[in-house]
Amino acid sequence: MEYFLELLINGALTGLMYSLAALGFVLIYKSSGVPNLAQGALVMLGAYLTWYFTNAWGIPIFLGIAVAVVAMFLFGMLTERFLLRKMVGQPIIMIVMLTLGLEILLRGVAPGFLGAAPKSIDVGIDLAPIIIGDIFINRGYLVGAIVALVLVAASLLFFRTRLGTKLRAVSDDHVSSWAVGISVERAIAVSWALAGASAVAAGVMWGAEQGVDHNLAALLFPAVAVVILGGLDSIYGVVVGGLIVGILGSVIPGYVDPLVGGGTRDVVVSLIILLTILFRPHGIFGREDIERV
Amino acid sequence: MFYRLTGVYQTDYAKDRALWPIPTDRWIALLLLAIAIAAPFIFQVHYVANYMLPWLIWSSAALALTLLMGVAGQLHFGFAAVMAIGAYSSIHLARFGVPFELALLGAGLISAVIGSIFGAAALRVKGLYLVMATLAMQYLVDWVIVNVPAISGGAQATLRTPDVSFLFIPLESVWLYYMALLWTVVVTLFVLNIKRSSYGRALVAVRDKDYAASIIGVSPFRYKLSAFFTSSFIGGISGAILAFCYYQAVTPEQFGFHVSIQLVAMVLVGGLGSVVGAYLGAGFVLLLPMILTNFVAGLGAMGILNVSASLLAHIPLMAYGALIIVFLLAEPLGLAKIYDNTRKYFLVWPFRHGQS
Amino acid sequence: MNHLLRKTLLGSAATITLAAGTSAQADDTITFGLLQDFTAVYTFVTDEYHQGQQDYLELINQRGGIEGKTFDTFVRDTGNEPDRGIEAYSRARGEGAVLVDFLSTPVSRAIVDRALDDETVMITPLHGRGDASHGETFPYVFPMMATYWAQATALIDYIDEHRGGLEGKTIAHVYIDTPFGREPIPVLEELAEREGFQLETFAYPTPGTEQSATWSNVRRARPDHVLIWGAGGGQPVSVREAIRNGIAPEDILSVVWLAETDANTVGRDRFEGVRRFEAVAAGTDYPIIEAIQEEVIEPGHGSGSEENVGTSYYNIGVATMAVAVEAARNAIEEHGVVTGETLRDGFYGIEDYDAEGLMPPVTFSPDDHQGGGMGRVSKWDGDSWEPLTDWFSAHEDVVWEAIERDAADFRD
Question: Mutate which of A257, A266, A268, A271 to disrupt the C interface (most C C-beta within 10 Å)?
Answer without folding.
Answer: A257
